[in-house]
Specification:
Number of strands: 10
CATH superfamily of the largest domain: Multidrug efflux transporter AcrB transmembrane domain
Helix content: 55-70%
Number of domains: 4
Number of helices: 22
CATH topology of the largest domain: Multidrug efflux transporter AcrB transmembrane fold
Distance between the termini: 13 Å
Largest sheet: 4 strands, antiparallel
Length: 723
Amino acid sequence: MDRLVSLLTGRRAWVLAVLALVIGGWLVGGVGQAEKDPSPLSSLPAGYESTQGQELLQELPDEGTSAAIVLFTADDIRADLPELGTVMQDLAATYDQGNGAQGQPAPAQDGPVGGGGEGQGGPPPGVAGGQGGIPLIPSEDGTAALSVLTVDSASASVARDVVSALRADLDGAVPEGVTAQVTGPAAVQADLASVFDGANITLLAVTASVVALLLIVTYRSPLLWIVPLTVVGVADQVAAVAATRVLALVGVPWDESTVGILSVLVFGAGTNYALLLISRYRDELRNHHDRHEAMALALRRAAEAILFSASTVIVGVLCLLLSVFPSTRGLGLACAVGVVVAAAFVLGVLPGALVALGRWIFWPQVPREGQTVLSESRSAWRRVGDRVALAPARYVVVTLVVLASMAFGLTQLRSGLAPEDQFLRTPEAISAAQRLAESFPAGTSDPVLVVTRTDEQSRVEDLADTLGQVEGVTSATAVPPVEGIGQVRLVLQAEPGSDASRTTVEQVRETLTGQPATYVTGGDASTTDADDGAVRDRLVVMPLILVAVLLALALLLRSVLAPVILVASVVATFSAALGVSWWVFTKIFDFGAIDATMPLLAFVFLVALGVDYNIFLITRTLEEARGHGTREGVLRALGATGGVITSAGILLAAVFAVLGVLPLVVLAQIGVVICIGVLLDTLVVRTILVPAIVRLLGERFWWPRRVGSQGLPHHSEAYVEQL
């Protein structure tokens, strides 16, 4: 250990720092991130019926296709139908992939439902129809007409390019007075991919700017902030390469948001670790003339807190590997790799960079030998601790009452976002679907598919006849079997995402009970299963995270009671943050519900990162208890760490709030909950509640660990010396 510390802080430590930065640059520029293996199954819950249906669709020869619904609107569309039919015929020659996996036949609007009868899937009487089976169906009110193309959507980027080109061609082809829009599954996939066009670069730029600004404010130095920002910035890019390469190696999928969330986590956690190390280094410079000796001591004393802090985050995010969503498992593994890289760069590169630059890097507040160290100063945080020490029981009660009142919003939570509520800025696919619902059955834009393994056309037709009688089903269109797989396309009357639509899906599934190898997927069937999967993840993964973090703290503190108290305090913080966030969502942002996956992701990051600050405080309390006892030690620890932890908390809150630059509601909601939670944890729980509890319990806080009168565990003098 001593040899490693000497290597990282010695006279030639700068060589190691430069070498690490060069290797990092080579990894980013020479190796680069791994390419995603696009799969529509990565965002679906494994083992659920809708996912089994999609797996069956993957066996079709043109499985990389989906429906793009072209919607034409005008004051009176009827006069333009012949010309629009010609437009669709021309476009079909370029874009349509044929009557394939997604059920090309256009949905019937009225009249008998069922499958396979004469003319099934073709244009109704009076409807313009182009060659190649591309019907153009007008609405009864005469203001709209739609047509369905089966387009290439092998990946999100392919769907984006195809739909963008289709929209451009439509703009130049429709007659004057007619508006053309594209919606349907392919368009939603394309617009979701467009959300992330350049998003990671924007997110990185905004995140780095926020971190730079807060570091300048924290250090009040025009120079110092450049060093940790450079180190963490390189770590962020290396983490993206390492994480995606590991994911590709082990075969775990990831989606477009993974690298963005990873970047936010690496910047947040890495900067927190840097703040702690630099704070200890600056303190040691006030006690030692030799800056290399000061850094060696700072590294020894900060490394344990940083390593255990990183370990709790890693353990927490790895619990996501038990999620039923493959993309969530990918996020958990990616974040674990990212935290490892962040901690390695802060502990392995930052010390050498700082000692190489000398004391002047802190200018204008250069620390000098003989100045008062933080634990001895009467800082604002020490004064807060002294106030808490006068009546700790009162502060515990009042703080818990405040947190409980903030958590009241949990009783009002409503989960499950409708498709039109998924985006902060409404894309064309959603606005077109809303307009389509004004003239056609609401479920036309996102039909439900019944997929069955059969070679018999008659069986598919019988299914369509049966399902067409289910209440809430507007039309049931049979698609002839291809490669032994038949389909029935169901258009529901209810609006997608509504309770009525989900009720219809349940009735369809009940009707199909006992049917072999038959699955209901697509539309609200997939949405319902995704929501059920999110509930399952919360019930399984959340308790596991708590147990994992609890065990990690027990290992660090060699205590039972202290970890329970610290974990309980973080759970209280999460509950209060989510409760307050509900009012923010509904009263300020006008969100009607929370995304079903948001609570789990917010919980993982808030619990894992929130425990960090308790680790920083409590490990310093152990150190200070060496000569002053636990009750006085926690006050000295609060005075010494209050500034750096508060700065780290504000920075982390601001960094996660940056997720709001991405126009997805789920990411904005995650950012809001974590932002509020981190601020609560930093300014209330860690500053008031935990010190008050420690003051009340004294040496009993460490039970069953025994701490002597001077704060030393009777069996571990060497351990405290290392602190």
